[in-house]
Amino acid sequence: MHLRRIIPLAILVLLAACGGGRTSMPPGPSGAAAPAAAVERFLRLVEAKNYREMGLVFGTKDGNIYRIDPARQVEQRMYAIASILEHQSFSITNEEQIPGRFGEAVRMTVNLTSGRQRKQVPFTAVRSGSTWLVEQVDLERITRIAF
Question: What is the SS3 assignment for 98?
Answer without folding.
Answer: coil
